[in-house]
Design goal:
5 helices, about 140 residues, single chain
Length: about 140
Amino acid sequence: MKRILALDFGTKRTGIAVTDELQIIASGLTTVHTKELISFLKEYFNSEKVELVVIGEPKQMNNEVSESEAAIQGFIKKFTKAFPEMPMQRVDERFTSKMAFQTMIDSGLSKKKRKNKALVDEISATIILQSYLYSK
């Protein structure tokens, strides 16, 4: 089987998570500067078999799209142009940053490590991917 990759897109940096080849476990992969995201994905897709990319969909409590959705739509256009054959799916990402932060607390990370926003983004991507796997 091929892997599923998830993105917690941000205007500065993007958290990335990926499944194992059996698509059972979601694990944080890395965080990259968003301006380098397409080139990172090209390299990753060349080295690993990926069948789907899941991108977080930020929504407000009233189910309206978040203000960051415009930036995500811009990225999706670039992504589709760069990878026209790669399927993509959106997943509601409400509360993933809060859940990621709580996960860091629960796992005993120090306050200094919890301030690492890149780690929060990577954990958020993992939560997005795990919620996709649960919904399959």
